TrEMBL record:
Tree of life domain: Eukaryota
Entries under CDD domains matching the protein: fungal_TF_MHR, GAL4
Keyword Zinc-finger (UniProt): no
Biased composition (Polar residues): 126-137
Limits of the Zn(2)-C6 fungal-type domain: 44-76
Alphabetic keyword roster: Metal-binding, Nucleus
Species this protein is from: Rhodofomes roseus
Region annotation (Disordered) ranges: 85-137, 238-261
Name of the protein described by the UniProt record: Zn(2)-C6 fungal-type domain-containing protein
TM helices/strands, residue ranges: none
């Protein structure tokens, strides 16, 4: 009886167990849906791992989103090394082959000595982003990670980071060792592993900065900067062996301290790492140090070292929150980074106005736009720096807005500070003292601040009226066009004879004298400064706006199906359009003349983007109209490519536009009517550079 019920009881128990098991599996399955996905190990690329950011690589793409936005090579050397280390550990735990004569090589032996020479945890390199020189191995497969640079990082360690090898490329082989890691930078670059050589290069690049860039952007005190830098390098030199390139001795450092007006306590305050990095990166653009010459010779006359230093300076500024924390140093750093970058707005790492806008926000946070705050800055040097920084940012914002069709950040009533620097010394006092004024004081003597500000106010008005969706769709109101033409003519009458290019040119000028005279200390689109070049760009901008949008009164009539010439003011409108064409073409030809003079003397390869925007604006108009004067602009941009490599592409595009115009493909819209009537512009074309007779007195070859 019992045996007869046993199978039925077992079946019932089995069914109950199966039901319970199924229920539990369903519950576990539902619970699993709510759990986070398993953590992925070792999937981040080297750049994201170093910066401690999320590595997001979309399916089908070779690079992660971070490397795409930063234009970094997306490498996985750390991941590969970690994976290989696990494989090696697993292989070592497996039983070895019994044969003593033929052993299958393990994963570690296939890699060579490098696999066993990776840095062990807890033994990080002593220098940030740079392996300890004594720990380098000729077969090292990747560069170990680094400790982040902080505001307290010494200048010695900062230089080690800045001059560390570039990210290994696909052509890099670990067997090449240290020379292979530096292969992209030319034959001299491996010497950067020597601390003494890094010091030598850094000091050279700083001097290049003060010789070339500081005359355009006088934001630093050269004596104080040099004193602090030499003092920090002198302290570093005391902890290493002597070499032929040791920094100055203690006595010479004391001399630098006295010239910079610094005490020993002041000198102990380290320079901001991002500021040092930015100054060095600027110097690399123009330096002819053997290291940079070898780099250019290896890379088709382009400097890969300069590009790397610029990227590292910008990344370092981001890491140290330069754009967020309002300090005087951060204002200066932001203003120096902006014109140093790629000037192509379409480039991922190019100019987008970010650092300029950051500098303006920092200045507003510091309330530098208030006269009461500015006057309370006790130190004259600090006050002068902040005043110049304010005007540089304020004027650059206005010119940027009109050049790149953006609304300006600042309005006329956003500030009330006066046009003064640090109380400039009167010219007669300078004659008695026999001293030279600083660049800031020279700007004030010659009235450039006032002229610049007057032109900047016109620029802001043009930006707010022209770059509106309503203007783009409807056209420019005729009264607005007349107003801008009158404002520009009034500015010319009041200021141009004071700040314009002189009538004569001295062939014996050096670089600074020639560029200063030709640009009239115009610190261009970044630094502000009034010159006839900026004034003439305004006419080119106005021409482009009228050609793109047209005049609203004529557009309204044409939308109804009526001919535009039936408008009561049609003749007057066409007359004003003709004046805009003639003035814009004369302006572009004049800028081409300036570019020709600077190019002939080889000065544009040493220019910190001062004439860059002017040459592009003028060259594009001349190319569109098929004018041969565009050759000066093309030659100028090609010379510019020494420091700004994107200029070579811009020159090629300009040459293409000119060829199309000569072939009869003139690219004009609303201005075509006046262009056709004038027979293709202002008078016959000429290979000579025609410029305004009042300024040059004729033609300049």
């Amino acid at each position: 009886m019992d045996s007869g019920h046993a199978p039925e009881s077992s079946r019932a128990g089995a069914q109950a167990f199966n039901l319970t098991s199924t229920t539990m599996q369903n519950q576990i399955h539902e619970l699993a849906k709510t759990l986070p996905p398993p953590r992925k190990q070792n999937t981040a690329c080297d750049a994201c791992r170093a910066r401690k950011v999320k590595c997001n690589q979309l399916p089908g793409q070779d690079k992660c989103q971070h490397c795409l936005s930063k234009n970094y090579p997306c490498t996985h050397f750390v991941q590969a090394a970690t994976t290989e280390k696990k494989r090696t550990a697993a292989a070592s735990r497996r039983p070895r082959a019994l044969s003593s004569t033929t052993q299958t090589p393990t994963a570690s032996s296939s890699l060579g000595p490098a696999a066993s020479e990776q840095p062990t945890p807890g033994h990080a390199p002593t220098s940030p982003n740079y392996p300890n020189t004594t720990a380098l191995r000729p077969t090292q497969t990747y560069w170990p990670q680094y400790h982040p640079v902080t505001s307290h990082t010494s200048t010695r360690d900062l230089l080690a980071y800045l001059f560390s090898p570039p990210v290994p490329s696909s052509t890099y082989h670990s067997s090449a060792g240290l020379p292979g890691a530096y292969a992209d930078w030319g034959g001299t670059a491996p010497r950067l592993a020597e601390e003494a050589f890094r010091f030598e290069v850094a000091l050279d690049l700083v001097e290049v900065y003060f010789q070339i860039v500081h005359t355009r952007l006088p934001l630093l005190n050269p004596a104080q900067f040099r004193a602090r830098l030499h003092f920090s390098l002198h302290l570093a030199s005391q902890s290493r062996s002597h070499s032929p390139h040791t920094p100055p001795s203690a006595s010479s450092t004391s001399t630098f301290l006295s010239k910079g007006g610094l005490t020993q306590n002041d000198a102990h305050k380290p320079l901001h790492p991002a500021l040092v990095a930015t100054v060095i990166a600027w110097g690399a653009k123009f330096s002819e140090h053997p290291l940079l010459l070898a780099d250019r010779a290896h890379n088709g006359n382009q400097s890969h070292i300069a590009k790397t230093l610029i990227n590292r300076a910008r990344d370092l500024a981001e890491d140290l929150k330069v754009h967020r924390i309002p300090t005087a140093d951060h204002v200066v750093i932001a203003l120096l980074i902006e014109p140093m970058q790629n000037q192509n707005m379409d480039a991922a790492d190019g100019y987008h106005g970010f650092w300029l806008m950051s500098a303006i926000r920092l200045l507003l946070d510091l309330q530098i736009n208030h006269k009461s705050v500015m006057s309370n800055i006790q130190d004259p040097e600090d006050r002068g720096t902040m005043i110049f920084a304010w005007w540089m940012a304020c004027l650059a914002d206005a010119y940027r807005s009109v050049y790149y069709r953006r609304k300006p950040m600042l309005d006329d009533d956003d500030y009330d500070i006066d046009f003064y620097t640090v109380g400039p010394v009167a010219p007669e006092h300078l004659e008695t003292q026999g001293t030279q004024p600083s660049p800031r004081e020279q700007l004030e003597f010659l009235g450039y601040y006032r002229a610049s500000h007057a032109l900047a106010r016109i620029s802001r008005q043009m930006s707010r009226q022209l770059w509106r969706p309503a203007t783009e769709s409807d056209g420019i109101p005729f009264d607005i066009l007349n107003n801008f033409m009158n404002l520009l003519n009034d500015w010319r009458e009041e200021y141009l004879h004071h700040v314009g290019v002189p009538n004569n040119f001295d062939s014996g000028w050096d670089f600074v004298s020639a560029v200063t005279a030709c640009e009239c200390f115009f610190l261009a689109f970044r630094t502000g400064g009034a010159s006839d070049a900026t004034y003439h760009i305004m006419w080119i901008v106005l021409f482009n706006a009228v050609d793109d949008f047209g005049i609203r009164e004529i557009n309204d009539l044409e939308r109804t199906g009526s001919p535009g010439h039936l408008h009561p003011k049609a003749m007057e409108i066409e007359g004003q359009k003709q004046k805009v064409l003639d003035t814009a073409l004369a302006s572009a030809t004049r800028i081409a003349g300036l570019a020709g003079i600077l190019t002939q003397n080889g000065y544009l390869k040493l220019d910190s983007a001062v004439m860059h925007v002017s040459i592009i604006q003028a060259g594009i108009l001349l190319a569109r109209l098929g004018r041969p004067e565009v050759k000066n602009c093309i030659d100028g941009l090609e010379q510019y490519s020494y420091a700004y490599e994107e200029c070579a592409e811009q020159a090629a595009e300009m040459r293409k536009m000119y060829a199309q115009a000569v072939a009869g493909e003139v690219d004009l819209a609303h201005m075509m009517s006046v262009y056709s009537r004038s027979g293709g512009g202002m008078g016959p074309a000429s290979n000579a550079m025609a410029v305004d007779p009042p300024m040059f007195g004729g033609y300049v070859g």
